[in-house]
Amino acid sequence: MHGRLKLRPPDAARRRQREEKLRLYRANMAALLEKRARGELDAEALALTGEVLAANPDVGTCWNLRRCALPAQHPHWVPGELAFVGGCLGVNPKSYGAWHHRGWVLRRAPAPPPAPAERALCDRLLAADPRNFHAWEHRRALAAEEDPEAELAFAGALLSCDFSNFSAWHHRGRLLALGTSRGGLPPHRLRAELELVHSAVFTDPADQSAWVYLRCILSRASPPPRILCLYVSREDATLAVTFSRPVVVGAQGSALMATADGSALDGAWRSGEGRPRPSHTWLCDLPPALAPPTSRPRLHFRVTWEPDPSPREVTLLPDEDEAWWQEPIVAQELFWPEMAVAEAGVLQAQAGTCRQLLELEPRSRGCLLTLVLLLSALDPLAHRDEIRRCLRDLQEADPLRGGFVADVASRAEAAVAVLRMGPEPGGAVRLRLAGKALTALPLLERATLATHLDLAGNRLGGLPPALGGLRRLKVLDASRNEVTTLRGFPPLPRLEELRLSGNPISHASALSPLAACPRLARLRLAETPLSSSPEAAAHLAQLLPRVDVTFA
Amino acid sequence: MADNLPSEFDVVVIGTGLPESIIAAACARSGQRVLHVDSRNYYGGNWASFSFSGLLSWIKENQQKTDICDECEDWTKLILENEEVISLSKKDKTIQHVEDFCFGDQDSAEDVEEAGALPKLPVFGASGAEEAAQESEKECPPSESALLEAESQEPAKATGTEPAAAAEGKDAEITSENESSHSMALGESTLELGKTEVAPSEISAQEPKKITYSQIVREGRRFNIDLVSKLLYSRGLLIDLLIKSNVSRYAEFKNATRILAFREGKIEQVPCSRADVFNSRQLTMVEKRMLMKFLTFCLDYEQHPDEYQDYESSTFAQFLRTQKLTPSLQHFILHSIAMVSETDCSTLEGLQATKKFLQCLGRYGNTPFLFPLYGQGEIPQCFCRMCAVFGGIYCLRHSVQCLVVDTESGRCKAIVDHFGQRISANYFIVEDSYLSENVCRNVCYRQISRAVLITDQSVLNTDSEQQVSILTVPPVDLGRPAVCIIELCSSTMTCMKDTYLVHLTCPSTKTAREDLEPVVQKLFNLNTEKETENEELEKPRVLWAVYFNMRDSSGIDKSSYDGLPSNVYVCSGPDSALGNDCAVKQAETIFQEMFPAEEFCPPPPNPEDIIYDEDEIAPEESGFDNSPETKPEPSSEESSSGDSSAVKKEDNEE
């Protein structure tokens, strides 16, 4: 037909270009490797690497050869090299090799490059891709010596284009030193940031970036680990120290020193969990001289831990079997220790905002979670019904993160139970957690004095080693859970009764850690696979000879 | 020169408006021999853009209403016995009620000439002078307006029509791709002119707030004033077509930067995108949520019929009232986002309009609209250029006397042009304004009311002066049409520095001035500087204004035209809608009717994939590399134009 163009098959041109590129790459690399084998790292080798990298900045071999060859060049190679890397970043702005090389060059530069030029490079890269983490990281390094207000404004400007930008929020957070300072933000700054966050979450509550940032600006640096509780028992002849976080003490960790009546206890510390790992609880055996079977001396203990300078003391009086010192529990710090407690009014206001948003968006998961955290931080006990309701809604709204939500719910329930725990007539201390749909057992370090732990009817898959901190525990009811094995169950000195009815324990050997509990007398295994297994009873009798095992 | 025109084509297109230009490009692209003519000396018909002096000439022409004298050649001898004739109209009657006003001191403008009235290139300079002579010959008796008197004392100014037209005038008879490279260079040279001539604006930069009429005249070439005011929906049919056909490479675009609303006597910015809502300081937190929630619902409203089906019989405005939206949000959505009537837009239409708006967000920026730099008039020219690249032949100032119809078959066979040449073809595309009253006697036309203002500041001043704004002013009396206002800043290359070009458009109920002046008075200060009262000070001052009515020939069924043969297709002029979908749809429909088997404007081939030599076997063709005109970049304009001219040479040799 008239005027029709005759065409090659489509993409022929592109294919030829690619073939040409491949041919060049192979030729250059072959020449380069040959030169390296001969040890000739000269200007020609540099030019060859330059050709390869300009087309493909991800060839690590070439960068390495370049780093070997460059120092031999004329003394002022740095500016030219920076320009070259800049060109490579234009080809692939996220090339790890190029960014790494850039850092290497900068470290060798006689003077740091002018910050405006560097910032302009970041600006350019971030304009092309506002989430280029390399560029953000580079900017952050520059911002260290520059005006933080200008940087805040820069991050703000990118957020105003699109606030779904974790990098930009994070940049702000880093500039405001969130998460590293002990206090929270100064009030005027906090107000400005909260306004920004509110605009974002009301515009799009489904976007998680602003919610995460909200949690960040409300929190402070995690409090460092400290001693929560000292417990000494004459009968066990041990001193137990419980920390707020799992720590390692002794040879591998920080020094933990205890004195009894002024003389140092030189026994080795062992973990309360019965295994050499970071642990909440560490134990020290008292030497027989201090705990003679016949007399009951008055004993004064003093414990110092290297990172926590203030010493903790406890006195065991002659007429007492046990004694303890415990840090008083602050309800507001129990659930979310990173929350900046001073700002209760601010937290109340945030909770109010969340409630307002929930009226409009009852299934916003960011909002539900934030409200739960806020209420738990304010007063877990007073708000427990609202917290439970929110968590239930959150489970429905966010089934993909069901496990996470269940763990949050477990922590909230544990906080409520810990706050309600107290000595009853007769000296029993009960931690009541039955039927709370628990999937985890957090905050046990706050329940070290419990004698009775009721976990019946939950969704626990095992009994955690952290139970080892409960030195006084006598009765543990874990009936109707999902426990299959007791592997990792710690040696509990006072445990007398363990109820495991209604758990899918199918092998007697799964109960073997119980042999380490000296006082265990009663073990209930009704409605378990073991109860219908003929050889289980015999096996258990062999394993736990002193224990009365009931299968019904 | 007219003898040089071939006497046989496949398709003859009369009129260079947007739909005709698209059809011409599509036909040329699919291998048809295309002749594209326009009786005017500029491209685009009613879709054109003019420099300031060009617009003044256009105004004068439309105010005088004189008939162009007939060429009076005896063409009847060209008509055979078994043939009939359908005469075409000699005079464009689509523009009425043109009234222009100057609010500055005109006397000082008398001696002012338009700076750089002629391009620096010697070729153009010569042709421009030639045109100046022609123009002044046609000069008509002075009109009553003082402004035009000043005009007529400066006949040279009339040469400053739209630069493209001036350049085109040199060889108005024939410009085809293979014989003259000027038509290709044309677009580029106008672009370059706009970009490079920076020097004169420095004068105005010294006193930015007082622009005088003489400055406007002097800087007249910085204006590109559209006859129709439209924007491109960033997911509209025109954008899709520009991308698909690769015509987009001939044009540059700028995002509209903000959507405005006029409410309770005040102009506010409408937060319409997610980023806008986030940044907005005027909305409360709850309003932000309510607005976002409603907009999100509109994006996939079809999935939630339960939300709106109870209101299907009521108006969109009523439906909005049932949603939890504050009055200001309702106003934003109804007038500025959906841009529909309060009284007679149904819920479904409103939801559809809102969805269309929202879908366009974010493709090129935070508003749904694009504006072509140098004016809307660029777009038809871009398609003409595409047509020329594929061998179409262009003649401006080339009138067609009549269509020749074969009485037996009832098909149109040929046209007779104003030189009396008979040119035959298979298909004929005629723009509506070329049809005689006889053919259109049963057609009922609507009208569009238009106003163009040059103002000294934006209707809403913010930190950035360079804003492209769109504002819908709801009618004062219910039932009358809303007025759509587009305000362009100087970075759109449509007006000089420190001025704004304001376009007002609405479907007519009366004359343009009667329709639009109340809105102009509300938003602008029409007094000269001395009379201005304090309260008026904050409003932008109008420096110059023109009102006119334009015929809206869209949406007319072909059967309404009397006695048109089946192979004659009618293209309508611009419609009153904001987007260009109507023109694109029409062009595609007509093209598919003519060539059902052909693809509509497929992407042009990569220049490197074109085979020039029949005997070529090896992929590395030496002839291609040796060609001095071609460059390896497939995307560059030069290479494509060079290539296609090379193609034409090839054909000629055969």
From TrEMBL, chain A:
<comment type="similarity">
    <text>Belongs to the protein prenyltransferase subunit alpha family.</text>
</comment>
<feature type="domain" description="Rab geranylgeranyltransferase alpha subunit insert-domain">
    <location>
        <begin position="227"/>
        <end position="326"/>
    </location>
</feature>
<dbReference type="Pfam" id="PF07711">
    <property type="entry name" value="RabGGT_insert"/>
</dbReference>
<dbReference type="InterPro" id="IPR032675">
    <property type="entry name" value="LRR_dom_sf"/>
</dbReference>
<dbReference type="GO" id="GO:0004663">
    <property type="term" value="F:Rab geranylgeranyltransferase activity"/>
</dbReference>
<dbReference type="Pfam" id="PF01239">
    <property type="entry name" value="PPTA"/>
</dbReference>
<dbReference type="InterPro" id="IPR009087">
    <property type="entry name" value="RabGGT_asu_insert-domain"/>
</dbReference>
<keyword id="KW-0637">Prenyltransferase</keyword>
<keyword id="KW-0677">Repeat</keyword>
<dbReference type="GO" id="GO:0097354">
    <property type="term" value="P:prenylation"/>
</dbReference>
<dbReference type="InterPro" id="IPR002088">
    <property type="entry name" value="Prenyl_trans_a"/>
</dbReference>
<dbReference type="InterPro" id="IPR036254">
    <property type="entry name" value="RabGGT_asu_insert-dom_sf"/>
</dbReference>
<comment type="function">
    <text>Catalyzes the transfer of a geranyl-geranyl moiety from geranyl-geranyl pyrophosphate to cysteines occuring in specific C-terminal amino acid sequences.</text>
</comment>
<protein>
    <recommendedName>
        <fullName>Geranylgeranyl transferase type-2 subunit alpha</fullName>
        <ecNumber>2.5.1.60</ecNumber>
    </recommendedName>
</protein>
<comment type="function">
    <text>Catalyzes the transfer of a geranylgeranyl moiety from geranylgeranyl diphosphate to both cysteines of Rab proteins with the C-terminal sequence -XXCC, -XCXC and -CCXX, such as RAB1A, RAB3A, RAB5A and RAB7A.</text>
</comment>
<dbReference type="Pfam" id="PF13855">
    <property type="entry name" value="LRR_8"/>
</dbReference>
<dbReference type="InterPro" id="IPR001611">
    <property type="entry name" value="Leu-rich_rpt"/>
</dbReference>
<keyword id="KW-0597">Phosphoprotein</keyword>
<keyword id="KW-0808">Transferase</keyword>
<keyword id="KW-0433">Leucine-rich repeat</keyword>
UniProtKB/TrEMBL annotation, chain B:
<protein>
    <recommendedName>
        <fullName>Rab proteins geranylgeranyltransferase component A</fullName>
    </recommendedName>
</protein>
<dbReference type="GO" id="GO:0005096">
    <property type="term" value="F:GTPase activator activity"/>
</dbReference>
<dbReference type="GO" id="GO:0007264">
    <property type="term" value="P:small GTPase-mediated signal transduction"/>
</dbReference>
<feature type="domain" description="RAE1/2">
    <location>
        <begin position="448"/>
        <end position="576"/>
    </location>
</feature>
<dbReference type="InterPro" id="IPR036188">
    <property type="entry name" value="FAD/NAD-bd_sf"/>
</dbReference>
<keyword id="KW-0343">GTPase activation</keyword>
<dbReference type="GO" id="GO:0005968">
    <property type="term" value="C:Rab-protein geranylgeranyltransferase complex"/>
</dbReference>
<feature type="region of interest" description="Disordered">
    <location>
        <begin position="599"/>
        <end position="654"/>
    </location>
</feature>
<comment type="similarity">
    <text>Belongs to the Rab GDI family.</text>
</comment>
<feature type="region of interest" description="Disordered">
    <location>
        <begin position="128"/>
        <end position="184"/>
    </location>
</feature>
<feature type="compositionally biased region" description="Acidic residues">
    <location>
        <begin position="610"/>
        <end position="623"/>
    </location>
</feature>
<dbReference type="GO" id="GO:0005829">
    <property type="term" value="C:cytosol"/>
</dbReference>
<dbReference type="Pfam" id="PF00996">
    <property type="entry name" value="GDI"/>
</dbReference>
<dbReference type="InterPro" id="IPR018203">
    <property type="entry name" value="GDP_dissociation_inhibitor"/>
</dbReference>
<comment type="function">
    <text>Substrate-binding subunit (component A) of the Rab geranylgeranyltransferase (GGTase) complex. Binds unprenylated Rab proteins and presents the substrate peptide to the catalytic component B. The component A is thought to be regenerated by transferring its prenylated Rab back to the donor membrane.</text>
</comment>
<feature type="compositionally biased region" description="Low complexity">
    <location>
        <begin position="142"/>
        <end position="167"/>
    </location>
</feature>
<dbReference type="Pfam" id="PF22603">
    <property type="entry name" value="RAE1_2_domI_C"/>
</dbReference>
<keyword id="KW-0963">Cytoplasm</keyword>
<dbReference type="InterPro" id="IPR054420">
    <property type="entry name" value="RAE1_2_domI_C"/>
</dbReference>
<dbReference type="InterPro" id="IPR001738">
    <property type="entry name" value="Rab_escort"/>
</dbReference>
